[in-house]
Amino acid sequence: MSQEEYQSIIYAGSEDRNREYKESFPWDRRTHGETMAKVTKTILAMSNLRDGGHIVIGVNEGTSYQSVGMQDDHLVTFSYDAIADFVRNYADPYARFALDVVTLDELNFIVIAVSGFDEFPVVCNPLSGRTLRQPGARDHRQHLCRA
Asked: How many domains does the chain have?
């Protein structure tokens, strides 16, 4: 993608079915498993759209979306392999995506470009047997596919 295309996605100022914003966070299951689950669900959902979509990390959510960039200590925790390993546990058959670190106006953003499915829709695999710790849940665990 060109810088202009990234700029239009990052600075759009609103979410839609093909674009989702997340605030800066570290890709760390121990401290941010719930946010990782939300990103994973979004990847699975966008995999079922004809044109896929984009997840931008580094945009504050709220009444207005502010593109503030990633915190440096959060940025270094993101890699394609780390995200793919996590998503692979839940996607059936698989989810295709690319991860880019984009610098605009001296701010760094993570842009996850999700491709639409090739042949079969992508679903959350409830048979993976994996759960995520959820603060406040009765047994402190919740299956990603049911959340």
From this structure: 1
Does 142 map to a domain? no
- Residue 131 counted as domain residue: no
Which residues constitute the domain of residue 51?
3-122
| pLDDT digits 0-9 by tens, 119-129 | 665 666 665 54
Q: Is residue 28 part of a domain?
A: yes
Q: What is the pLDDT of residues 73-87, one digit of tens each?
A: 999 999 999 999 999
Query: SS3 string of the chain?
Result: CCHHHHHHHHCCCCCECCEEEECCCCCCHHHHHHHHHHHHHHHHHHHCCCCCEEEEECEECCCCCEECCCCHHHHCCCCHHHHHHHHHCCEECCCCEEEEEEEECCEEEEEEEECCCCCCCCEECHHHCCEEECCCCCCCEEECCCC
**Residue 65's domain is classified under what CATH number?**
3.30.950.30
pTM for this structure? 0.84
In a domain, 96, yes or no: yes
Query: Which pLDDT tens digit goes with each residue over 46-66?
Result: 998 889 999 999 999 877 899
